[in-house]
Amino acid sequence: MRFALSEDQVMLQDSLNRTLADVVPLDRVRKFADGGEAAAPDVWAQLAELGLPGLMIPEDRGGLGLGMLEAALAAEALGKAVAPTPFLGSSVLAPLALKLAGTDEQRARWLPKLAAGATTAGVAISEPIAGARDDAGVTAKDGRLSGKALFALDAAGADVLIVADRTGRLHLALMAEAAEPMSGIDATRRLTELTFKDTPAEPLASNQALDRLRDAAWIVLAADTLGAAQAMLDKAVAYAKERKQFGRTIGSFQAVKHLCAEMSAELEPARALVWYAAYAFDHAPDEAPLMAAHAKAHTSEIGRFIARTATEVHGGIGMTDLLGLHYWFKRIGQNRQLLGGPERVREIAARMQGLAA
Amino acid sequence: MDLTLTPELAAFRDEVRAFLDAHKAEHEGGAPKDPKAWQRLLIDHGYAARTIPREYGGFGAQPDILKSRIIAEEFIAANAPRGMSGQGISMLVPTLLEVGSEEQKTRWIPPTLSGEIIWCQGYSEPGAGSDLANLQTKAVEDGDDFLISGSKIWTSTAAQAQMMFCLVRTEPQKPKHEGISYILFPMDTPGIEVRPLKTMTGQAEFNEVFFTDVRVPQANVVGGRGRGWQVANTTLKHERGMLGDPNATEARLKALIELMKSETVDGQRIIDNPIFRDRLMQLQARVLSMKFNGLRTLTDDTAGLARLVVKLQGCELNHQLAALAIDALGELGILYHDGPHLRAKGRWQWNYMFDLGLIIGGGTAQIQKNIIAERGLGMPREPKTVEA
Prior knowledge:
By secondary structure, chain A is of the alpha+beta class. Chain A has helices at residues 7-23, 26-35, 41-48, 68-80, 87-101, 104-116, 126-130, 209-242, 254-283, 288-313, 325-337, 342-352, and strands spanning 121-124, 137-141, 144-153, 160-164, 170-173, 178-182, 191-200, 202-203, 244-245, 248-249. In chain A, a hairpin with a 2-residue loop joins β9 and β10.
């Protein structure tokens, strides 16, 4: 028994962190966020050299064939770098949907292209998981989709869409009737409102796939928040060691150092929870839904605490656009609400255990 | 990450289970029929004093955290009493093993393990709590002996203990960390007075101990005269590891869930109230986090910070679990003394109060935060003020 990362997993995370530091410096994040680009294909292309797009895609389809723990580690690195990538939709959810519910023909057609990174997939599963807002929801009839899907992930510029209808059944569509950007607080990742009007789509086979997609998405969002929160804590600690007031580095004041200790005390155990949820997804499927739910809800809570506290440790400069700390703050804020805020997710967690009707 | 047990560990688990099953009659109901016989039996099988060498009365196994963990889990699952604990076994024995003389080890470890000698710890003083090195209980040379005068506080089991391991100031002229010695003496030595210290729980979990010219041989010093601070830190390391047991926390969560499923208000179960349910789920996530964090600290070399946060987070979490239980009980949560409406013999209320003491004791939450920030995050220490 060993509750620790393997050498390969540590190497994967190290090389991703290094590459991301080169490929997505703050200037690149800022350019993406402020420039209104639909996607950052240059970033994705360079990450493709490490095999990131095909991380979970089987080796015989051109991917790395790795598991959910590796995906969580990658997500953590991406959150740490607030990187604009279609990782969640294109590398985790769409390949998983095809694996669980696709035909062999669909897999052969899409997986190698997704693994190469030149083709990306968007995923619209918000309504059956987070609930329908503003009358959104997609209905399927005779191989055609109609209705609206809000908060579609990585759909801007995508070549193929995975769409859940109101009943939770998944469909594969090549395009929507219309795709409008949903401009949110977190400009490092694009969300899209998709409209379908008798749009042709192929139904995917299984009815059970959506629950697994939900668990995978919760784990990846939790890991992304973990990485973003770690980055904010690191920055706060570094700043507190440098900044002087009253003739002392502010990190020597207990009022400041205790804030950093509290952030660390919240973050470290959450890391173990995220790792376990990811491990369970592949190795203890009975436990995975509950662990994924708790990982998502709990990182949302500690993420919010760390986002505001790390900003506070920076003092006034933490609020400025120039410093850019807000990109992490907003990413954590967006992850919290995406695919269900913590209250909703905890209610689902209670239901999973028979503690709620 | 590989959370499956190796065949060796799986076999070990079966072995522990079979033992507990075979000896059910001796431990049924969660308490041993004969505590000393039970302790002997556990040591003989390696379920207590597991890694203490055989020549000192232990089982003599190599340290194996996973086997220790399996023992803990199986004993909890079977509701079987663990081996004796207490400050002698959990703190003095490891300290003697590290820094004691051969004579001290042979003389004190075997009767401590067998339960013949109960120890108490004389560390904190009225003027030396978090700033423990400021302790003032003095030991003045008198021939081959010391004469000890002063007082200690927060001394649990002082009323039952036959012996004390104690920090005293032997070199008052030296800087505060260098003038301390770690010394052992019997509690029936003339000049020792024990007064129970009643806490907010209504019970006296602690004592005050007063010393007036207590005569103790200099040979009873452990680890060298003036080296008491280093020796004490060996011991505190063992205490901090002891105060955050995730297995116990998990058992408490389980009891809380049962409570919320069985208690009703106006015929509605507490668990059916969405506000209470949400609070329960928040705490469940924390219990799971601490459980996996604990597993990680056992087997991950990169878990330095994960280890440093255990005391702070574990004690706080236990307190919050008790707090939710009391809130779930509502007005019934007020009750504390025997009566027809009292729940769980007042255990939740007692925990709620006593656990606050655990948040403070063994290094306060604030001291823990200093440790996390300074040792874990490398933040600068508070500048020293001029010593008083």
